[in-house]
Specification:
41% of the residues lie in helices and 14% in strands. By secondary structure, the protein is of the alpha/beta class. The chain has a 7-stranded parallel β-sheet with strand order 3-2-1-4-5-6-7, sandwiched between helices. The longest helix is centred in the middle third of the chain and has 28 residues, at 122-149.
């Protein structure tokens, strides 16, 4: 098999949640550019409409549906609409998620009182866990019947290096919710292997996206964090495109239950 065939996604029906910006948009771009039919699901209707128009103008087969990942009914409705429209689904990137609130330290190492456990609002915890874990369960529940109908497929969950490491600047709920999502992916991989549905997760490190209010897009923040990253830079959404193609294509046909870290070496520690 030639390389272009091994990594082909042409003709596949693919869903990307949180696909209107950041990592999800990078996934939607690379997949549509290589011939997949891509449905972007996002709560930001304006950004979604803009990106659907842009990608369609470039020759992509792209459509958008509004979804609120904090609302199970919204997830179920959107997946049913796009699944019924395509007739089947082949690959689903469960990418949408977020972080709210603060950690117990800021980037300068100073204590943040609002981020200490005794001060974390209950609704903040509930919101982060619902967005990063419960929504993954709901999305998987909705898409599996369509993947079975296709004779198999892929579920790819965006987690984080926060699934296995801890820092002080993200909110209290972010770590356990991402760890839960990573473990859920492994559990689903085991359950669904007999149906030829492969389930893997992607664990990004610091990527310049809109998460946490777009903090990592700030050049000063990037410069601060880059000093502790072995590759000496904060990641960009485009850095994940190659892995997205790999996991969506026949190139990864014997891989399930894996957790792919893509962090510029962050979890290895500082190199100098």
């Amino acid at each position: 098999m030639k390389t272009e065939e091994l990594f082909s996604v042409r003709g596949l029906s693919i869903v990307v949640t949180g696909g209107a910006s950041g990592i999800g948009l990078a996934f939607a771009e690379i997949l549509s550019e290589n011939g997949a039919r891509v449905a972007i699901l996002d709560i930001d209707e304006r950004a979604m409409a803009r990106e659907v128009e842009r990608l369609s103008a470039a020759g992509g087969d792209v459509r958008g549906l509004r979804v609120d990942i904090l609302d199970r009914a919204s997830i179920y409705s959107a997946i049913k609409e796009i699944g019924d429209f395509y007739g089947k689904l082949d690959v689903v990137f469960v990418n949408a998620g977020f972080d709210t609130g603060s950690g117990f330290l800021d980037l300068t190492g100073r204590r943040v009182l609002d981020g200490q456990i005794e001060n974390v609002p209950d609704d903040e915890w509930d919101r982060v866990v619902a967005g990063n874990l419960t929504a993954v369960v709901a999305t998987a529940k909705a898409v599996v019947p369509y993947l079975r109908k296709a004779g198999g497929g892929r579920i790819i969950v965006t987690t984080s290096i926060a699934a296995t490491t801890v820092n002080a600047i993200s909110s209290l709920g972010y770590y356990p919710s991402k760890a839960g999502a990573a473990h859920l992916a492994r559990r689903l991989a085991l359950e669904l292997a007999g149906s030829n549905i492969l389930v893997n997760s992607i664990a990004p490190g610091g990527i310049a996206t809109n998460i946490a209010g777009g903090l990592l897009k700030d050049p000063e923040v990037q410069a601060t964090l880059a000093r502790s990253i072995p590759l000496h830079r904060v990641g960009q959404p485009d850095d994940l495109k190659g892995l997205a193609i790999f996991l969506a294509s026949a190139a990864s046909a014997y891989i399930t239950g894996a957790h792919f870290v893509i962090d510029g070496g962050t979890i290895l520690g500082s190199a100098d």
